[in-house]
Amino acid sequence: MDSSVKSFWAGVRAEFPLLVGVFPFGLIYGALALGVGLSAAAAQSMSSILFAGSAQLIAAQLIRDAAPGFIIVLTIAVVNLRHMLYSASVAPYIADLPARWKTLLAYLLTDEAYAATIIHYEKTGVTPAGHWFFFGAGLALWTTWQISSALGIFFGALLPASWPIDFAVPLTFIAMVVPVLKDRPALAAALSAGAVALLANGLPFKLGLILAAVVGIFIGAILERRR
Q1: Where are the domains of the chain?
Q2: What is the pTM of this model?
Q3: First to last CA, the chain
């Protein structure tokens, strides 16, 4: 139990630097969701059930544009396909856990939680209390997202328009990526994926993100194999 508690709080501490960027991200979502006509209860429920910042922002924007329901669902599904890559990456480390733990950690598997957790797993490998680190990082993010979303819903309209809080979104993802760029294959994968994402930005349903991920994975895998 002592090692589990220590691992849990280590996960919380590892997640904390990313929470600085997540908090204004939640404020943005809350204010936008209320602005497009969602009720406060519906907007907060989306944060609790869907729990996916980029998907929630996209859904709110599509609702604002009166997009058909199947387009909203399809777009969110495409955007969240990256979570399949996350799950495949962490699967070897949690393979022996009971189904209840896998279900809980799957719910908490988001961009920021994955970034902190995979670095920890790569350093320590599989340990008896490793899943508590994952749980601590994920729960810290979940709690921050619920609080920041709620504040955005109820107070977002009071924030001055001149405050560039939307800049926190790309900063958060930059902070996630930089620590894992430790070798040439990883750097090449990140640069190629970023370039493709920019070039394919105009594709519908955010398909440019999926194309960028595929290209980045392919280039990284080729260079890793050659090394």
Answers
A1: 2-157, 181-227
A2: 0.74
A3: 41
